[in-house]
Amino acid sequence: MSKDHQVKAKKHLGQHFLNDESIAEKIANSLSFKGYNHVLEIGPGMGVLTKYLLKKDVTTHVIEIDTESVEYLKNNYLTLANRVIEQDFLKYNLNQVFKNEPFAIIGNYPYNISSQIVFKTLEMRDQIPEFSGMFQKEVAQRICSKEGSKVYGILSVLTQAFYDAEYLFTVHPTVFNPPPKVDSGVLLLKRKENYVLSCNENLLFKVVKTAFQQRRKTLRNSLKTLNLSDNLREDSIFGMRPEQLSVSQFIELTILIENDINN
Ligand code: SAH
């Protein structure tokens, strides 16, 4: 394939190539590049963002599922060639490359797997001090939203338990080829100084997911399946709906539940 051959966008891979250089540069500049030596870009496509990362004082790695894009990258970014991982981000064991060292994650993400990308990041939070990039606007807003907001949900609570989340800016469909049907939003996650929680972390995930499965109901009703004591369920916090609880209240709730289960 010749060097200049452009990758044909494939819908099933969520391919929408960004064609605005200044936005690509702005996204690349959203990371601090401090406190880690490696950056992993998910879904580089034809490398619009990658070329700005390559100018930074870190080692850039990319993971891309599309063979045609991988070929393009290897042909056009010679210095990157050994650091192109041709794999599905969701399935690949990243420590084959990172060997337990810290790294940041960045990307103009494939929107069809955006929640899974965030969940995998949360699982690997010990190694990921920073994360930034572009999602469907709604998803980016949801991740950053606070209690009381209509879009506050599982992703908001679990992400913000470990990371400070900041919505940076909105990107309109016209700067992509092909244009997506929705607006996009860029966000930045910075891991908290103390991100080890005072509650059982697995139980927090379970409580948050169970509560938001029925977001209109009070916790008294939605958490029935956890078999809690009547005594605990009398606590006033159980009269609240999940969207009213702050992250720290979810952590307090998890501690209450933990103690109840252990007694
Ligand atoms: N960053 C490029 C492309 C964005 S489109 C740009 O801004 O122009 C999203 C990219 O993610 C595509 O290149 C697609 O092939 C890739 N992709 C989709 N699913 C993936 C997965 N599971 N793992 C790795 N890359 C994936």
From TrEMBL:
InterPro entries: KsgA/Erm (IPR001737), rRNA_Ade_diMease-like_C (IPR023165), rRNA_Ade_methylase_Trfase_N (IPR020598), rRNA_adenine_dimethylase (IPR011530), SAM-dependent_MTases_sf (IPR029063)
One Pfam match: RrnaAD
Catalytic activity: adenosine(1518)/adenosine(1519) in 16S rRNA + 4 S-adenosyl-L-methionine = N(6)-dimethyladenosine(1518)/N(6)-dimethyladenosine(1519) in 16S rRNA + 4 S-adenosyl-L-homocysteine + 4 H(+)
Highest taxon, organism lineage: Bacteria
Binding positions (S-adenosyl-L-methionine): 16, 18, 43, 64, 88, 108
Gene3D superfamilies named among the record's database cross-references: Ribosomal RNA adenine dimethylase-like, domain 2 (1.10.8.100), Vaccinia Virus protein VP39 (3.40.50.150)
Domain Ribosomal RNA adenine methylase transferase N-terminal: 23-193
Major place of residence: cytoplasm
Function: Specifically dimethylates two adjacent adenosines (A1518 and A1519) in the loop of a conserved hairpin near the 3'-end of 16S rRNA in the 30S particle. May play a critical role in biogenesis of 30S subunits.
Family recorded in the similarity comment: Belongs to the class I-like SAM-binding methyltransferase superfamily. rRNA adenine N(6)-methyltransferase family. RsmA subfamily.
Designated name of the protein: Ribosomal RNA small subunit methyltransferase A
Organism: Formosa maritima
Gene: rsmA
